[in-house]
Amino acid sequence: MSTWIRWNEESKLCRQGQLGEEQKVTINSIFNSKIGAEYLPPEHKGDIPPNVEGGQLYTGSCHCGAVTVALSCKPLDEFNEGVVVVCNCSICSRNGYIWLFPRPENVVLSGSEDAIGRYTFADGLTSKTFCRTCGINMTNLRNQLSLDEVRALSRHSRQVYERNKESHPVNVRILHGVDVGKLNKVTFTGATVMPSTYINP
Question: What is the pLDDT of residue 87?
Answer without folding.
Answer: 86
